[in-house]
Design brief:
Layout lengths: L2 E5 L2 E3 L5 E8 L8 E6 L6 E6 L6 E3 L7 E6 L4 E6 L8 E7 L10 E5 L2
Parallel strand pairs: 2-10
Antiparallel strand pairs: 1-3, 3-8, 4-5, 4-9, 5-6, 7-8, 9-10
């Protein structure tokens, strides 16, 4: 069964950093482009960024460009989101998903940016 599990969230002060992980199982991870999304309270899912299957190309939402970096390790079936210079507006539950044939949303990982 295809599955994605996010982890690494937590409480961080404005200006701080966090590294989120997304571990895949049950499907050939290296064949899929992947996205990071986030959902703030009361809002729709927002696309944070994406990475192609080889990891050689990434794209980011304007709101995170220059602060967030997506990477992946296809040997470990994992994708990462390095977040720096965090702002209160980055507070959300963060999710990962496949670009092609997205899976049902997982539990996500909560990020709270507050003093």
């Amino acid at each position: 069964q295809a599955q994605l599990v996010e982890s690494g969230g937590g409480l961080v002060q404005p200006g701080g950093s966090l590294r989120l992980s997304c571990v895949a199982s049950g499907f050939p991870f290296g064949n899929y482009g992947m996205n990071w999304y986030r959902q703030a309270p009361g809002k729709e899912h927002e696309l944070v960024g994406e990475i192609i299957d080889t990891g050689m190309l990434t794209n980011y939402a304007d709101s995170v460009k220059g602060r967030f970096t997506i990477s992946r390790n296809n040997v470990k079936n994992a994708m990462y989101l390095e977040m720096s210079s965090l702002k209160p507006d980055d507070t959300a539950v963060y999710y990962c998903n496949r670009i092609q044939r997205p899976l049902p949303w997982g539990q996500g990982t909560q990020v709270i940016v507050a003093a």
